[in-house]
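name: query_chain
kind: protein
chains: 1
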Amino acid sequence: MKRVLAATVGLIAAVGILSACSDDGSSSDSSPAATPAASTAQTGGTEISTTGNTEVKVEGKDLAGVDLDSVTCVKQAGKINVASGSSGGQQGVAVVMTDEATPKVESLGLVVDGSALAVSNSMGMAVGSAEVSVDGDTYTITGEAEGADMKNPTAGMVKKEFTIKVTCN
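structure:
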């Protein structure tokens, strides 16, 4: 349990750092609808794209509070990193997966209504589960994240199903 909590706290920090790196100049509309805009930049072999048609759903519902306009996808050194900012709250998402024909999620962090949720498999301890399907440049990540309610960490494990759909140009 201590390892899971430590991994969850680490993922919260990663989500916070990645959120801080996101563009705060985007719309602050908290509407959870998919974003249509897209832009791509390349710097030194790193492909960075602000994606279109992004969706983040937890338990089948749009994750309110995630700024979908801030979602970025960075491809570098055999990895794909997806991260978002929040629109006035603590909600957020961060994903690291392999950049191969059949990508695998290495780590995933979600902050949902005060709960820090994660998917990871490190040091022989698996937390949650995730599968990735690819359709062209669109990645759909589905699974179940586990973690703790940060307002009441002694309440036991929290598990939530999620779907993240992002286009990485």
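note: Helices lie at 2-20.
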